Amino acid sequence: MPVRTRLRSRRTGRRLAADAGLLAVAAAFALPLAWVVLSALDPHAGLRVRVPDGLTLDNFDAVLKPDITYTPLLNSLILCGGGTLLTVVCAALAAYPLSRFRSRLNRPFLLTILFATCLPITAIMVPVYALFVRVNLIDTVQGTIFFFAASQLPFAIWLMKNFMDGVPKELEEAAWTDGASSLQSLVRIVLPLMGPGVAVVTVFSFVMMWGNFFVPFMLLLTPDQMPASVSINDFFGNRGTVVYGQLAAFSVIYSTPVILLYVLVARRLGGGFALGGAVKG
Amino acid sequence: MRLRRTLTRALPLTPAVALLLLFLAGPIAYCAYIAFTDLQLTGQAHSSFVGFENFRAAFKDDAFLNAVWLTLVFTVLSSLVGQNTLGLALAALMQRASKPVRTVVGGIVITAWVLPEVVAGFLLYAFFRREGTLNAILDWLHLPTQNWLFTLPILAVSFANVWRGTAFSMLVYSAALNEIPKEITEAAEVDGAGGWRRMWHITLPMIRRSIGTNLMLNTLQTLSVFGLIWVMTRGGPGNRSQTLPLFMYEQAFQKSMIGYGTAVALLLLVVGSLFSLVYMRLLRTEV
C-alpha cells in the first residue's frame, strides 16, 4: 500500500513540525512565567528573566507578614468564600425548578440569564459605586460579597441547570412517592449525583472572584479590608522603590490557590475544562 | 390550586432572583438613569436631569473619541486577530502533535489564563519594560530595543491580553476540532488536498459555530478589560492606552463626573448587549 506508507511518513514529519511550532509558541508564553518563578527565588531580582545568583527564600520571608500577605489573603478568602457560597447555594436552588418542572416562564427566564452572562460587568461598576454610596453599602464586606454573587450568578445558574439536566428524573420519582419534598430530593439525591458539576461551578466562581481586581477596588475603601488582588498594587505605591523579588514572591503565593483548584477540577473532569459544554451550545 | 403549586415550585428561585434584581438589574436601571443627569462625586446636594447632554458632550470630547478608537484597536488586535487566530493555530497543531508536547504546551498556555488578572499585568509589565525580558532578547539578537510601554503602549497591552486570553480560544477550538470525524479529513487527504486547503474548505466550515461563539465571548471579555491595562500603564502615557473602561473610571473618579462617566458606561453596556444578542442568535439554543 504505497499510498498508506506515504501518508504515514508524511504524518510523522508533520507531527515533528507541529511539535516544534507548539514548543516555540509555548516558549514565548513561558518567559513571563519563568520571570515570576525565578525572581521570587533570586536575591537580586530585576525585571528580566535570568538565572538567579543563588537561590534564596528571603523574598518569601520578607512578604510572609500579617500586613503584607496574611491579612489580604484572609480578606480574599472571606470575600471569595462568602461570594462563592452564596452563588452556589442560590444557583443550585434556582436550577432545580428550571431543570425539573415545565413552565412557560422557563425559556424567557433562561434567555435573560444567558443574556446577563454576557454583559460587561466592568461597565456597571461606576453606577454600582454610586448606588452603594446611597444605600450605605460602600466599603462593607457584605456589600461586596452580595455584588460578587450577583455578578457570578447568571453563569452559575446556567452551568448548574445544564449539569442538573444530566441527572435522570426517574431517580427522584421514587423519593417523591415516598413523600420527600423538593428540597429533600435536591439535597439528598440530585446534588450528590452531580458532584463534579457542583465542583465546577464552585471552583469557577471562586477563581473568577479571587482574580477580580475591579470590584473590590471600587467597592472597598479601607486598606485593611482589601483583598490580595488590590493590595498587590502597594508594592508599587507606598513602599518606595519596588522590590521585584518580593513582588514576585507575593504573586506566586497569591496565584497558587487558583492554579491548584484549576488542576483539581481539570483532573476530575479528564483534561478539558467542562466549560466547553456550556459555551459551545 | 394550580397557582399555589406553581408558586411553591418557583419558591427556590427567590434568593437568586432577589440578588439579581437588587445587585444587577438595580445598578443597570440606575445606570440608565444617572447617565442623563449631571451627578458629581462631591459637594452637590442633588443632581438635575440634563437629557442627552452627557452623550452630546462625549461625542465632542476628543479624549472620548480617542478612547473609542483605542478600544477598537485593542479589541481587533488582541481578540479578533490575536486570541482567536493563535488559539485556532494552537488547537490545530495540537491535533497533530505528540502527547507529551501537547500536555506541556497546554499546561503553560492555560497557566497564563488561570493567573489572576493583576498578576498577569505585572508579569507583562516586567516583560515589556525598558529593562525587561523582551529588550534583553532583542539585544541578544542585535535588534533595536525600545521602551515598549512608552512608544507602543496599546500594542503592549494588546499582546498582554493575547497572552492572557488565548487559552480560552484554544480550549473552545480543541473541543470543536475533536468532534470532526477523522474519516472526513482523511478522505480529503487521500484525494490530495493540502493542509491549507483542508483547513479552509473542510475544517473551518465545520467549526463555524464555535468560531462565532468564540469571537463573541472573546470580544465581550476584551471590551471589559480593566485591571490588566491599569496595572501595566494606568492608561498612559498620557491617554495613549486609555480604553473605554479606563476612560470611564477617570471621568467618574479622578474628574468626579459620575454622570458623564456613567453615560460612557451606558454606551459600553449597550455595545455589550448588542454583542450578547448576536451571540444568543448564534447559539440558538433550545432552552
Automatic annotation (TrEMBL), chain A:
GO terms for cellular component: plasma membrane. The chain crosses the membrane at residues 73-96, 108-132, 144-160, 198-221, 241-265. It is a multi-pass membrane protein. One of its GO terms (biological process) is transmembrane transport. Keywords: Cell membrane, Membrane, Transmembrane, Transmembrane helix, Transport. Residues 73-265 form the ABC transmembrane type-1 domain. Pfam families: BPD_transp_1. Coiled coil: none annotated. The keyword Magnesium does not apply. It comes from the Bacteria. It is found in: Cell membrane. Belongs to the binding-protein-dependent transport system permease family. PANTHER family: INNER MEMBRANE ABC TRANSPORTER PERMEASE PROTEIN YCJP, MALTOSE TRANSPORT SYSTEM PERMEASE-RELATED. This is Sugar ABC transporter permease. It comes from Streptomyces olivochromogenes. The lineage of its organism: Bacteria, Bacillati, Actinomycetota, Actinomycetes, Kitasatosporales.
Automatic annotation (TrEMBL), chain B:
PANTHER family: BLR7065 PROTEIN, SPERMIDINE_PUTRESCINE TRANSPORT SYSTEM PERMEASE PROTEIN. It comes from the Bacteria. One of its GO terms (biological process) is transmembrane transport. The keyword Transferase does not apply. Keywords: Cell membrane, Membrane, Transmembrane, Transmembrane helix, Transport. InterPro entries: MetI-like (IPR000515), MetI-like_sf (IPR035906). The keyword Membrane applies. One of its GO terms (cellular component) is plasma membrane. Belongs to the binding-protein-dependent transport system permease family. The chain crosses the membrane at residues 67-92, 104-128, 148-173, 215-237, 257-280. Its main location: membrane. It comes from Streptomyces olivochromogenes. It is found in: Cell membrane. This is Amino acid ABC transporter permease. Residues 69-279 form the ABC transmembrane type-1 domain. It is a multi-pass membrane protein. SUPFAM superfamilies: MalF N-terminal region-like (SSF160964), MetI-like (SSF161098).
